[in-house]
Design brief:
about 140 residues; mainly alpha; 3-stranded parallel β-sheet
Length: about 140
């Protein structure tokens, strides 16, 4: 039951991303394996915000962002987090130099599920170098 974070999912849906890159290859592999994918509820808001930021910066147009958002809504990712995950994310954030809690909630969910967390966030991977379940995509 792998967990995916927003940095990976943005690379699955953003209009100008090359799907042949690592994140796209990961998605293909996970679908072929029929893996159930999980994330905290925050995932959709984070990815949607990245799409909006791309519009504001002129990286892509609104119609492209709309299509990417529709693609996001169709991804086979189940949103699961609990109050205990939020508490654990707080503990992890405090332990790791106040790293943003919105990143640590993904870590907490993966930790609870005892499965891997896939991320493209190099800073998060560096911060959690001892956590072998955090996989850099």
């Amino acid at each position: 039951m792998p967990v995916v974070d927003a940095s990976v999912v943005v690379d699955w849906v953003a209009p100008d991303v090359d799907t042949a890159q690592r994140a796209g290859q990961l998605l293909v592999r996970l679908i072929e394996e029929r893996a159930s994918l999980y994330a905290p509820r925050l995932l959709f808001e984070e990815v949607a915000n990245a799409l909006l930021s791309g519009c504001r910066r002129g990286r892509w147009d609104g119609a492209s962002a709309d299509r990417a958002y529709e693609h996001l809504l169709r991804l086979p990712v189940e949103l699961i987090d609990t109050p205990a995950d939020r508490g654990r994310a707080w503990d992890l954030s405090r332990r790791h130099d106040e790293h943003p809690m919105y990143d640590m909630i993904y870590v907490a969910v993966a930790e609870r599920l005892a499965d891997q967390l896939y991320t493209a966030d190099a800073r998060l991977v560096e911060r959690l170098f001892a956590a072998s379940f955090v996989i850099k995509v």
